[in-house]
Design brief:
By secondary structure, the chain is mostly helical. The protein is built from five helices and no strands. The longest helix has 42 residues.
Length: 144
């Protein structure tokens, strides 16, 4: 049986079962995994940063999508039904507004998902990629 090849210079394994730090950082963008990795990993700041960024992103994403969903449902019932009753130009305009809110919900959701995949890709490449606003918050938390 052969021994595994030695690790490359400059790279160290994370405290998470000997995972490569780049793999651990990328996996942490599954936000519940990021939460676990943040508490397990005590030494590798690269993994901790990406794990915390993932957790903050997941919380912000959940809050934003919940608010948009509630707004869309309220507008659907309040104006969608009312708009159909009113009829004419106003009713059509109100129904278009409701559809626009639902479209916005899905477009923002897709954009956030793409941002999450991109951040995981950058982490796997070994880059400390900061998401706007969230990256600085994660960095401050990790630096404590």
């Amino acid at each position: 049986m052969q021994n595994p090849p030695p690790s490359q210079p400059g790279s160290s394994s994370s405290g998470i079962g000997g995972l490569d730090p780049k793999v651990a950082a990328a996996l942490s963008y599954i936000w519940i995994v990021g939460l676990i990795f943040f508490f397990i990993e005590k030494e590798n700041r690269f993994v901790r940063f990406h794990a915390m960024q993932s957790v903050i992103f997941g919380i912000a994403n959940s809050v934003l999508m919940t608010v948009l969903a509630i707004l869309a449902v309220i507008l659907t019932f309040a104006f969608g039904i009312g708009g159909a009753m009113v009829g004419g130009g106003i009713g059509t305009l109100v129904q278009m507004l409701v559809w626009l809110i639902w479209l916005l919900f899905w477009v923002i959701g897709l954009a956030l998902f793409v941002g999450l995949i991109f951040a995981a890709y950058k982490a796997y490449q070994g880059e400390k990629f900061k998401l706007p606003f969230i990256g600085n918050m994660a960095e401050k938390i990790v630096d404590k």
